Fold this sequence. Notes:
alpha/beta, five-stranded mixed sheet, two-stranded parallel ribbon, Beta Polymerase, domain 2
Amino acid sequence: MSAKPELLSKVLRSLFGKRLKSLAVSRGELTIEVAAADYFEIARILREHTGLNFEQLIDLSGVDYSTYANKPWQGKRFASVLHLLSVTHNWRLRLRTFAEDDDFPVIDSVCELWPAANWYEREAFDLYGILYDGHTDLRRILTDYGFVGHPLRKDFPVSGHVEMRYDAEAKRVIYQPVTVEPRENTPRIVREASYGDVGHA
Length: 201
């Protein structure tokens, strides 16, 4: 572990102790996981503590872990992951928390701490169905207002639930159930008989 993540790890362990569910270094960057109940308060400390100063939110994303690494996942399904930067200390940090209820995932909003989280949280709500408690304008941002479901959930059908088309008689766009039959595409590889032969002229 390089000096920066090692030093940051010590600071985080001393500040948060047992409230850190995990602390790991991957690709030279630190990831910490905290309980949903501690998420907002730890995020606030990360931003305001003079020894940390994570004043910039780089990204926030939702994650569906239901089939993580193409295997069944044993833990909670939906997570929210923050990517933070301390310009003051030149530190980067990932902060992850899992929603307690897979059927109704709710996580505290961090818009109060980093206003840039606004549209990121709307995107995670739209695509994963994660509700951000305290967000002042949580509505869809990428899909249509009448869209059914959350398209980045791993159990969402590739073809969707409805399709839209222009109806010439009604003179408007209409929605109807999907008419495409689900199918599995298997790529077909065609090679010449002598493909890869070094001595072939």
